[in-house]
Design brief:
Layout (H helix, E strand, L loop, with lengths): L1 H9 L3 H14 L6 H15 L3 H5 L5 H10 L2 H11 L3 H6 L4 H10 L2 H11 L3 H5 L2 H13 L2 H8 L5 H6 L7 H4 L5 H21 L5 H11 L4 H11 L2 H4 L5 H13 L2 H10 L4 H5 L5 H10 L3 H5 L7 H4 L3 H5 L4 H9 L9 H7 L33 H8 L4 H11 L2 H11 L1 H6 L3 H10 L5 H5 L1 H15 L16 H12 L13 H10 L11 H10 L3 H16 L12 H6 L1
Helix pairs in contact: 2-3, 3-5, 5-8, 8-11, 15-16, 16-19, 17-19, 19-22, 22-26, 26-32, 30-34, 32-34, 32-35, 34-36, 35-37, 37-38
Amino acid sequence: ELLESRKRKRKPNFDIEKDVVSLWEKMRQRNIKAEDRSRIVSETLAKMKGKMVQMAMSHSCSRVLQSCVKHSQEAEKNEVFQELRPSFLDLCLNTYACHLALRMIDNAKKDQLQQLLSILHGNVVRLLRHPTGSAVVEHAYHAASGSQKQELVSEFFSPEFRLFRNITKGRIKEMLSDEPAAKRKTVLEHMTLSIQPILEKGIVDHSIIHRVLVEYLSIAPMSMVSNIVDQLSGPLLVRMLHTADGAKLGVLCVRHGSAKQRKKIIKALKGQVLKVARDDHGYAVLLSVIDVVDDTELVTKASMQVIMSELATEIRELSVNKYGQRLILHLLAPNIPRYFPAELLKTLKSPVVACAVSSSKTTVDTSEKGDDECGDVNDGDDNTESARISKKDPFLRRTELLSKSGFAQKLVEACATNAGELLRSPLGKDVIYEVARGGVDGIMLKATPEGISSVHKAIADLAALPKDKKTEEEHVLEHYHASRTIRRLVLDSSCHKLDGSSESFAQMLWSLALQGRCTTWARGHSAKVVAAFRDSEDPAVRRVAKSEINSLVDSGVLEGRKAKATSADAAKK
């Protein structure tokens, strides 16, 4: 009683809080009937009417009000919204009430959301510097339409610029293209003053911050770009890789950071590589590390367990993951449009932000001489850009990454052991294909020729299994993805013939699986594999299969033309 008496004196709404908490205990039971819960919700809201703001900021009653909003009728939701709306900013800054602010955004109708965004207008930057306020702004950003998002982002621009320009569409770079230098400088200075406190506090998890930083770096001179890269290089960057704009920032930091900054980024990735590799956006940063970091010892050093060492622990899982397999393919066949989206390749090849324009019209000059002294950049010349960012030959870098870390050996072992699964996988098939063909420029043939031979043997052994054998999985020659992958390997067989070996993959496949059995495989998906021997550019492959394939064509079992005569056959005639 004494304790309650003291609380009653300290808390003006103590009796109401006690009553509503008691009602909440009944309301939140799982086995309660819907009509009983609705009645209790109405009773609870009636008790809190006129005092909802204080209730929302109370440790004990905040969750009560959240539950009421969740289970209330539409009319009751509107009443709660109208009472809390005038104090929405205060709710955003309160540790307990911020959760109710998030629920208000979730439940808001189109006109109500616009009202909440109007309340945030003029306060976005201030809220983003606050731990709980930033979470509310981020939630509102995700709920907003495109034009509303642009309005939130424009809070970082100068007030005068927002007042006299239509900022609901386009990027800041385009908006400033026709503006005088003085106005561009004003916007940049305002953005710098707004962004720096947020970075200093380390509040960088939100996508709106990532969007603002991308906008900022698109107009900033090189000195300011370097400053931002230095601030982000390290643990902060890892927290930003889960968004598209955050991944772009990560790629920029890797591509245009110094050797010291790149080392900090790689150290920050320790223990997070596999998670980043499977992330929708974050994997692009690992691709950039593979592309430009000259210090391959840093990337492959076993004692640090970073990048290659961590990737090597789950090669099979990465090979069948949509984003993880792109890391493996980037080592084997970099920048091939078949494997990589055009937008990703554009991001990976993006020039230094401040140098991305050929004049200083868009990039802001903050000194008399100007910080942007990079000159023109030829967007069509990838080698020029890569040479400026990285000194080591790309092929040599990839070779070292594959060999020094032991990744190449583990990769061929995984492909040989899991050949059936990878061939049948719509994602894994590309990995085993590139491994079996030796990669672009024969990089895997140089790293582990014996391993490539073992992969060839594993595929041929699977193809040699009897057609009528009862198995849980479809035969590789009859499986949609597997048959087409094997067909590609046969057609490309002359390109990946092992050094010192007289037998290519196609010849091995023929001798182990198809010779004398073509009639069995001349229909369905497997017919494409048989026909590939006829269409191969390698004369040796056509020679071994010519007579059997031509007899199938003559008998009408295999559709299409006969095999071409080889030069040796033509000479005999």
